[in-house]
Amino acid sequence: VDYALYKPSPVCRVSFSTFMEHSRLNLSDSPKSVEFQMRILERSGLGEETCLPPAIHYIPVEPTMEAAREEAEMAIFTTIDDLLSKTGVKPRDIDILIVNCSLFSPTPSLSAMVINKYKMRSCIKSFSLSGMGCSCSPISVHLAQDLLKIHPKSYALVVSTEITTPNYYQGKERAMLLPNCLFRMGCAAILLTNKSEEKNRAKYQLMHVVRTHKGSDEKAYRCVYQEEDPEGKVGISLSKDLMSIAGEALKSNITTIGPLVLPASEQLLFLLSLISRKIFHPNGKPYIPDFKQAFEHFCIHAGGRGVIDQLQKNLELSPAHVEASRMTLHRFGNTSSSSLWYELGYIETKGRMKKGDRVWQIAFGSGFKCNSAVW
C-alpha cells in the first residue's frame, strides 16, 4: 500500500571530523587503526550527514541494553507513526506484524515491543527475524506474501531496521573496524495487503521474490561473521572474499530470476550462451542478460561503494541506474536491510517513478544470501 522511512534528528549526524575525533580518543593507543578508518571513510561513498545513535556519540561509547532499546523505540515507533498517518490504517487493523533486525534481538522481542506500544490485537500473527543480515527485508516481504496467501482481507506490517548501539566495535582488528565506518541508523516500515478495495491506492504490486542462500559453502558462511577478537571484544568480521562471494550469489540469483522477468529474446540469448559454454567453450565468458529491458529502476543494497561498483559492472548498468544507491549511501550510509526502501524513496522524490514502471530490489546479507524483490 505504502511505506515510510526514518529520518534521524540532525543531532545524531556524524561528520567525518567528528567520527575521526572519537576514533582517536577511543583508540588512543592504536594510531594505525585510526588511520585505517580514515582511509576507509574517504573511499566509502558516505557523506557528512549520516547518523549514529546518541550512545555512540559518548566518549567512551556506552552500548548498554537500555540505550539499544531507546534507539529501537526512536527509529521503529517514529517510522510506524509516519506510515499509519499516511495510510489512515489503525494499529488494531494490522493482522500480521514482521520486524527484522539482524544484530539486536532482545527479550521481549522487537515485535512484542511494537504490539505493546500500539496495543495491537491479541490474535495478531507476529514475527521477529534476526541474524539474517542486510538482505532481510526481501525475506520479510516474502514471509508477509506467504501469510497473506492464507489470511484473506488482511494487512501486513513489515518493519526493517538495524540497531547499531550494541554493535559498535571498540577493538583494533581491521576486518571488524569496517562496519563502524559503514553502518548507520535507518528504518523502513512497509504496509502490504491483499484487500481488493486497496488496489486503487496501492503504490506497488509485488510480482516476485527470489532468494539465494550460499550457506552450504564454508567461505560464504563465514565471510560476514560475528565473533570475538583476541582481546575478547565482539564485532562483525568482513572477509576479503566478500565481493567474490557476493558475485557468485548474484549469478545464482540472476539464473533464477531471469526466466521470470526477461523478454523472450534475452532468455534465448542466455540459453544459447549456456549451451555454448557447456559444450564448446567451458572457459568462455558467460552472457550477462540485459536486465535494463526488464526493469526501469534498480535498488541495489547500499552496502558500500565497492558493492555498488561491482553490481554496476556485472549487470552493465549506467550511472543513472545506480544513482539512487549511491545517493542513499552518501546521505544515510549503510542502513542495512532498510537501504532498499531509502533508494525507492529517492527515485520517487526525483519524480522518476511512473505508473507501470518495474523495480528490482537486490540485497546481500550474511549467511551468505542474495535476495531479490520485483515490484
Give the key terms.
single chain; about 375 residues; alpha/beta; Peroxisomal Thiolase, Chain A, domain 1; five-stranded mixed β-sheet; four-stranded mixed β-sheet; 13 helices; 11 strands; about 40% helix; globular
Structure overview:
It is found in: Membrane. Helix content is 42%, strand content 17%. The longest helix has 23 residues, at 65-87. It has 2 domains: 3-198, Peroxisomal Thiolase, Chain A, domain 1, CATH 3.40.47.10; 208-374, Thiolase/Chalcone synthase (Peroxisomal Thiolase, Chain A, domain 1, 3-Layer(aba) Sandwich), CATH 3.40.47.10. The chain has helices at residues 16-26, 31-44, 54-57, 65-87, 110-118, 136-150, 174-182, 218-222, 242-261, 264-279, 305-315, 323-332, 339-349, and strands at 2-5, 96-101, 125-129, 155-161, 187-193, 208-213, 224-228, 234-238, 297-300, 359-365, 369-374. Helix 1 (16-26) packs antiparallel against helix 2 (31-44), helix 2 (31-44) packs across helix 7 (174-182) and helix 12 packs across helix 13. A hairpin with a 3-residue loop joins strand 10 (359-365) and strand 11 (369-374). It is built from 13 helices and 11 strands. It is globular. By secondary structure, it is of the alpha/beta class. The mean pLDDT is 90.
> Judging by the overall fold, what is the CATH architecture of the largest domain?
3-Layer(aba) Sandwich
Q: Termini distance?
A: 12 Å
How is the quaternary structure best described?
Answer: single chain
Helix segment count?
Answer: 13
| Average of the residue pLDDT scores | 90
Helix and strand pattern: EHHHHEHEHEHEEHEEHHEHHHEE
- Biggest β-sheet: strands ordered side by side in the sheet: 1-5-4-2-3
Examine the coordinates and then state which fold CATH places here, giving the name of the CATH topology of the largest domain.
Answer: Peroxisomal Thiolase, Chain A, domain 1
Strand content: 15-25%
Number of strands: 11
Let me know the CATH homologous superfamily of the largest domain: Thiolase/Chalcone synthase
As a whole number of angstroms, the C-alpha radius of gyration is 21 Å
CATH class identity of the largest domain: Alpha Beta
Helix- and strand-based class? alpha/beta
Q: Report the sheet with the most strands, covering strand number, pairing sense and barrel closure.
A: 5 strands, mixed
Total separate domains: 2
Which residues form runs of ≥5 with pLDDT under 50?
A: none
Classify the helix fraction into a percent range: 40-55%
Assign an overall shape: globular
